[in-house]
Amino acid sequence: MDNTSQIIERSAELFAGKRVLLVNPQADGLTASLEADWQVWTWDYAAWLGLKGRLDEACLSFSHLCPEVGQLDAAILVMPKAIERAEYALAQIAPLLASGQPLYLVGEKKGGVSRADKLLGQFGSQPEKLDSARHCQLWRVQLDAPAAPFALADWQQSFTVELADQQIELLSLPGVFSHGRLDEGSELLLEEPAPLPVGKVLDFGCGSGVLSIALARRNPECRFELVDTDALALYCAAQSLARNGVEAEVYPSDGLSEVHGRYHAVISNPPFHTGIRQDTGIAERFFNQVTRHLLPGGELRIVANGFLRYPPQIESHIGPCRVLRENSRFKVYSAVAPG
Asked: Which residues belong to any copy of the Methyltransferase small N-terminal domain (predicted)?
């Protein structure tokens, strides 16, 4: 069981038998070992897959928005990686609680929970640390008054990306990769003028959709599919595609779990962090699995930090790896499947 779940379980008397909203949990045994009327909201598709067989479907939500759960006794937020994602989640959770009810925050000490006093202090005057163990902390605040209603528009950020050949209007939400800006890696990949192979293109870890929008305009004969594990990213990608008049399919996937069929090209700025830890295993599993989704002659085109030793992995699974372009921090790699 994850450390954050263990520290919640240590305070089981606070939650047992109560109607509790649990937000951003790990897909472990907490909801089975601690008997409560659990209502779960996650934006992580991998967690949703792991929990869907353990909870009633009506009690589990995968969305960019918190479900409107009534008659709560308490709510728990497991600290996300990005502070701004925590603020976004708390702004939706707090209005579901009545004055005097408890709002809990749990997380790893090095993962942002040290800011719990400030994060919870906007909802009550006396945030308190209840427990500290296994490198985690559990905090609580009791609401002084009903929280202000949540408005999604207050958290959406619209911004414009200027490329040499086009202008792109993007929508972003807190915690979505490169929130509110074009990251340096994606910018480098989009500087590459070589066309993609004509046909189906998969955008793995699509974020707000900037790669697909730009490349769909440059490659009008291609059909794009965008996947991500983050519900907020998927919402932003769908909205950004619509704003730019680009048609594409957008759907959740844990890695390549929901991807079927084979593609003429796969593009990605692949993630290499899980929570607060660097995890190149995501990319390693991706290279291992993506080969079965590339047609003969299909191209894998990715951008990555230059210090990551991706070329040997790419070549062992797909084929010869070329560097299309690079700068002091990033490299754009291309490999073509044999055949």
From this structure: 5-158
- Rounded Cα distance between 116 and 118, Å, is 5
Alpha-carbon distance 140 to 134, whole Å?
18
What is the rounded average pLDDT of the residues 129-158? 96
Q: Under 8 Å CB-to-CB from 56, ≥6 apart: which residues?
A: none
Helix, strand, coil distribution of the chain in percent, nearest 5: 30, 30, 40
Distance of alpha carbon 183 from the chain centroid: 16
Q: Which residue has the tokens 């990251």?
A: 183
In contact, 174 and 119? CB cutoff 8 Å: no
* Residue 280's pLDDT band (cuts 50, 70, 90): low
| Measured distance CA(294)–CA(187) in Å, rounded | 24
- Does the model's pTM come out above 0.85? yes
Asked whether residue 78 carries a pLDDT value surpassing 80, the answer given is: yes
* Dihedral angle computed from the Cα positions of residues 33, 34, 36 and 37, in that order, rounded to the nearest 10 degrees: -40
- The reported pLDDT for the residue numbered 25 is 97
Which amino acid, 135?
H
234-257 residue pLDDT tens? 999 999 999 999 999 999 999 999
How confident is residue 339, by pLDDT bands cut at 50, 70 and 90? confident
Q: What are phi and psi of 7, to 5 degrees?
A: -70, -30
Is domain 156-336 given the CATH code 3.40.50.150 in the classification? yes
Any idea which fold 3-152 has? Rossmann fold (3.40.50)
278 pLDDT more than 90: no
E-strand spans in 229-336?
Answer: 249-252, 263-268, 273-274, 277-278, 294-305, 321-326, 330-336
Q: Structural domain boundaries of the chain?
A: 3-152, 156-336
